[in-house]
Specification:
Elements (H helix, E strand, L loop, with lengths): L19 E3 L4 E5 L6 H6 L17 E5 L13 E3 L10 H4 L1 H20 L3 E3 L5 H17 L15 E2 H13 L3 H11 L12 E3 L2 E2 L7 H16 L2 H24 L34 H20 L3 H29 L15 H4 L14 H20 L5 E2 L5 H9 L2 H13 L13 E2 L14 H13 L2 E4 L4 E4 L13 E8 L2 E10 L2 E6 L11 E3 L7 E6 L2 E6 L3 E3 L4 E6 L4 E4 L1
Parallel strand pairs: 12-16, 17-21
Antiparallel strand pairs: 1-4, 2-3, 5-13, 6-7, 7-8, 9-10, 11-12, 13-14, 14-15, 15-20, 16-19, 17-18, 20-21
Helix pairs in contact: 4-15, 5-6, 5-7, 5-15, 6-7, 7-8, 7-9, 8-9, 9-10, 13-14, 13-15
Amino acid sequence: FGAFGSAPRANTPAEAGYPLPIGPKQTFAATPFDAGMIADRLADSSLPAAQRAHDESGLASGALLYPLQMAAGQSVRVFVQIPMTGPAEADQFQLGVEEWFRLVRTKTADEWRERLGRVALRLPPAAQPLADTLRTALAHILINRDGAAIRPGTRSYARSWIRDGAMTSDALLRLGRDDVARDYLHWYAPYQFKNGKVPCCVDQRGSDPVPENDSHGELIHLVDAVYRYTGDRALLEAMWPHVESAARYMDELRTSERTAANHNGERAAFYGLMPASISHEGYSAKPMHSYWDDFWALTGYKDAVDIATALGKPDDARRLAASRDQFRADLYASIRTAVADRHIDYLPGSAELGDFDATSTTIALSPAGEQANLPQDLLQQTFERYWKQFVERRDGAQWKDYTPYEWRTVGTFVRLGWRERARQAIDFFMHDRRPPGWNQWAEVVGRDARESRFIGDMPHGWVASDFIRSALDLFAYERDEDHALVLAAGVPAIWLDGNGIAVDQLRTPYGKLSYSLRRTGNALHLTIADTGMRTPPGGFVLAAPGLAASGIAHLGHREIAWKDGRVALARAPVELVIPLEQGHTQAH
């Protein structure tokens, strides 16, 4: 309120940047901090006479005062127009307050429907909260922005981290907000240091020099993701110097650990990795060789190869591919060494500690796309162990808190084929929205909702992005080993009764995906609409619940066999009727 200055009179247009009280007669009082906060002055009836206050610390306060007399059950509507930028609009003077308010409210609602409605999910009533929360999560991400800067919050985290921005941009791109991801990329990339180092975060002071070695791969991934969803070659060419210098800097970092001192002995697990950093909050007290950093670096190398190839730079593509392959070999050798040294049977969080951190390990599957290359026994055991801990927490009363970054495990469950576990995890996490109708999570969720505790920001933008990406994975995700689009791998069977589900205009790197899936009697009905999207290199794979392990699909006069409970489709549009009992399919 201290920024208000003097209060404009009712029915008088406001000055630039001032709020405009509308309606009943009112007065305004303001006070600097040293003269007492306005709430205290109101409480002891020592209302200041001043209508303007200035405070060097920025802690002036003010109050609008309305003298109202109301009978029991009566209500009075009070309007205050607070412009986010520029002067208040004076349209209400011609329209009347009530009509003006109705028009402004309708206009604002229409604008938000357009921003949030580019992708739509049609789900059964029991699952509607998931679709509603998806829209709200997108809104929170947009609201948290500061200009083009994507931020995880507006209070505790009022700065921009590239890891938040890259992962949030993945969510934005899938929901049709490539404009926001593109603007963020254009804004963040120039903060890169001259030596190629990508700052972990940017705030009003500029680039943060603290080394967090996930950031370089994250910027490269952001460039590649925006290009894959938009096809903007001019942007790719403009960003190539940033990509190339970030990749060269990663080469310097990994080479610094690729030494004879690290080749054998107790330091052998560090050989060829990204150097130790504090990118992971758990390592803030002491930097560690975090596999989070390494899987982001591998993601960056892989994406850099794709970018060089797309730009027609074969020499650069070969050089980057050599770095990628050498780094991947060193990374997996390090994991095997750390597992042996620490006598563990899961994928560790860091080379030093051999610690268990399944939430961070999820990025090895997405966005790193390394599911097929990971040691399968360690991968399975990692998430079996997580699931055991999850059930113990869910069914017990001893747990204290957790971070909803764990939403990432839902996407991992989908990729592992754990449909029922994904459903149970969704039910648990959705229950912890606070308050439930607000469709939001804090960074830290406590078992006791009324206990005073650190919660970070609420709503939390990065948590919102983790939720969005996992929620969308239920309906479609790109399988990295062959770039197929896998459909319905996380959809519970109960959602398919009646009208079933429908996905409308979901963005993919190959265009807009629209499909519907429902169950009638003993058959599934799949329709993939003609949206003009390109066929993915690996085609479409239907992984719906209830499919027989194998069967025969009839596509015209051709027979197409499927196996492992998944139907492979080479093109769209298509309409399928799949008998669930006999395991035979008719396609048109």
